[in-house]
Design a protein that fits this description.
By secondary structure, this protein is an alpha+beta fold. It is built from 16 helices and seven strands. Strands 1, 2, 3, 4, 5, 6 and 7 form a seven-stranded mixed sheet that branches.
Length: 370
């Protein structure tokens, strides 16, 4: 059994005798998850699945994956799509930069490689949104390359089996995890090996209350032997998540409502939202948000009616938003804003990609207008 203190540099043939790889593959042969991109591992399908699965639970992403593959079945179809169509299909999955990068990378693949993903992990990493893990996953799963692919699930398994004491997010720990994964990778079976690590972490080696009693690696797990499996991987205690308060306005003029587009860079990039402002606290006055909206839009609003309160938890803050709605009389006001804006029919709101908060506001407003 190898410790995390000294990972030997072994020639690949020796890895075939690694008890860890043998036990892992034996377990995987009968317990692997039935996932659509594994049945016929086309490079494009593997790529889409791996990007969608980043920071997203499998049961959440699977319906999105199926819809995506129906709408964009090939790299060429994705490359020829509009960004708004891509974002609308991705709506609700979060981390929208992943969707924009998929489209940008598809365009690059069509332009430079004739619509075929490059074969090597090194070449794959030159595409937008493809990092070390995704490149390793595509190269091994789709092209059979002997490349490791270390995701969060694999890190948890490796940290426990080898009792890695380093802080999991540190560069030293990342080197250790990737070295360990490569040292045990059996030649010609990287796809099974990488997926077995992922599945073991997802099914048995859970963050809390791991199912050690039925784990195929329990005899080799140093953390289990020491009774500290739930203390690995070593992580920094999470900081308290701040709460931010906002107010939004659904402004109607005739049969249309005003929406503005978020900047391309940053949170919810290029998605559409109702005009909103950030408030200093939960008890900011209505007059405060009206003044702020006037500064952003260039026209004053009459006192609106309360539509509802909405909350959503993002990765680094909690958002509490109070929404109002108002109907304007007379001619449509001139909007003086630095952002792209539109006056759209209510029915058209469902065709615009929106974040979860604004989609809930749109649905609440449409219900009262029916």
């Amino acid at each position: 059994m190898w410790s995390d203190e000294a990972v030997p540099s072994l020639p690949n043939p020796y890895c075939m005798s690694s008890p860890i790889a043998k036990n892992l593959l034996r377990w995987y042969s009968s317990r692997q998850r039935d996932l659509p991109w594994r049945k016929r591992p086309r490079p494009y399908a593997v790529w889409v699945a791996e990007v969608m699965a980043q920071q997203t639970r499998l049961e959440t992403m699977l319906p999105y994956y199926r819809r995506w593959m129906r709408r964009f079945p090939t790299i060429h179809s994705l490359a020829g799509s509009s960004e708004q169509d891509v974002l609308l299909l991705w709506e609700g999955l979060g981390y929208y930069g992943r969707a924009r990068n998929l489209r940008r990378a598809a365009q690059q693949v069509v332009r430079e490689f004739g619509g075929r993903l490059p074969l090597t992990a090194e070449a794959l990493r030159r595409l937008p949104g493809i990092g070390r893990y995704t490149a390793g996953a595509i190269a091994s799963l789709a092209f059979g390359a002997d490349e490791p692919a270390v995701d969060g699930n694999a890190i948890r398994v490796l940290a426990r089996v080898f009792n890695v004491k380093l802080l999991a997010g540190s560069s030293a720990a990342q080197v250790r995890f990737w070295t360990l994964a490569a040292a045990h990778l059996p030649p010609g079976r990287a796809a099974e090996y990488n997926q077995a690590l992922m599945d073991l972490g997802a099914e048995l080696c859970l963050p809390r209350k791991p199912k050690c009693g039925v784990c195929p690696l329990r005899a080799d797990c140093r953390a289990k032997a020491l009774g500290i499996q739930e203390q690995r991987p070593v992580k920094v205690k999470p900081k308290a998540v701040p709460t931010r308060h906002f107010a939004a306005a659904v402004i109607r003029q005739g049969g249309r409502v005003l929406v503005v587009q978020r900047p391309a860079a940053g949170l919810l990039g290029s998605l559409w939202e109702f005009p909103n402002v950030r408030l200093s606290g939960a008890h900011s006055s209505t007059a405060t948000y009206r003044r702020a909206l006037k500064k952003d839009l260039g026209f004053a609003l009459p006192l609106g009616q309360h539509l509802g309160d909405f909350s959503h938890q993002y990765s680094h803050f909690n958002a509490h938003l109070r929404a109002f709605h108002t109907s304007l009389n007379g001619s449509r006001p001139r909007v003086d804003s630095q952002r792209v804006f539109r006056w759209v029919p209510l029915a058209h709101l469902q065709k615009l990609p929106m974040g979860k908060l604004d989609r809930r506001i749109a649905e609440a407003y449409c219900r009262i207008e029916v």
